[in-house]
Amino acid sequence: ISIKSLSKIYKSKHNEVKAVDHLNLNIKNGEIFGVIGYSGAGKSTFIRLLNRLEEPTEGEITINGKDITKLGSRSLRKERQKIGMIFQHFNLLWSRTVLENISFPLEIAGVPRDERKKKVLELIKLVGLSGRENYYPSQLSGGQKQRVGIARALANDPDVLLCDEATSALDPQTTDDILDLLVDINNKLGLTIILITHEMHVIQKICHRVAVMEGGKVIEQGDALDVFMHP
Ligand code: ADP
Ligand code: ADP
Question: For this UniProt entry, what's an example GO CC term (predicted)?
């Protein structure tokens, strides 16, 4: 993933906010890359630009050789299937079971019923939710809800998993369990994981490399160990 001079300016009548400001970054295939920074640094805007939940004001985002900022709506839909995302508040459908939530992106992608069922059961096993297939989100703990979110994000075999403060609503033990699961998934599936967080601990526990954001810019980057080992 190669990001060149990426900017997002929010304009209103009275002011403009440079949420992301000429940001440059390269993320390698298969790495766990962390973006850390205080509230308001632009992290959330940045990660939403990566799957075009936000439209950039300027710049390029090249994923596997394709500049996704240039895609029309049809090819964008296809590319988006290769980018999974998980959220702080899980964003599950409350009237649907675990199985139905995970199945949802496969339905949208037009995967036949039998194939869907097989894939969903594989995913449920992968994230450790066997036996909970027919539970509703309201019957699950926070950690279990995030496991559903992860399984749903993996349904279309993405190359990239974006994590937006994915453990910020969880207690420390559950946070560790979810981070272990992300490492496990990174090992087993080899996909690239990009996570944003305001928690140093999350970065130190699982990230290979890290960028520190402030005022919409990357102010420091490097191996996770080096960045946090300054005198
Ligand atoms: P972080 O995720 O690091 O807390 P954000 O990306 O949410 O940072 O926000 C970066 C800046 O952009 C902040 O000043 C925020 O107020 C502003 N911002 C974010 N979203 C919007 C929006 N939809 N409209 C206007 N300003 C926004
Ligand atoms: P349907 O199965 O009819 O498509 P949904 O499962 O999308 O319905 O949503 C059922 C209800 O749950 C709606 O009122 C919706 O607003 C609410 N809901 C869905 N997702 C969330 C969420 N992430 N957080 C809170 N409420 C939600």
Answer: plasma membrane
SS3 content of the chain, % helix, strand, coil (to 5): 40, 25, 35
Ligand nearest to the CA of 44: 1
C-alpha of 149 from chain center: 10
Given this model, what pLDDT does residue 112 score? 97
Q: pTM of this prediction?
A: 0.89
The DSSP bridge partners found for residue 63 are 66
> Does the beta carbon of 190 sit less than 6 angstroms from any atom of ligand 1?
no
Is residue 23 in contact with ligand 1, taking CB distance under 6 Å? Answer: no
Among protein residues, the one with the nearest Cα to ligand 2's atom 24 is: 91
Look at ligand 1, atom 6, and give the residue with the nearest C-alpha. Answer: 42
Distance CA 35, CA 85 (A): 15
Structure tokens at 120: 């969903």
Atom of ligand 1 nearest to the CA of 38: 3
56 and 23 Cβ atoms separated by less than 8 Å: no
Predicted local confidence at residue 224, as pLDDT: 85
Residue nearest to atom 17 of ligand 1 (CA): 19
The ipTM assigned to this model is 0.70
Residue 10 CB less than 6 A away from ligand 1: yes
Quote the DSSP letter at residue 70.
Answer: G
Regions of the chain with pLDDT less than 50: none
**DSSP code for 115:** H
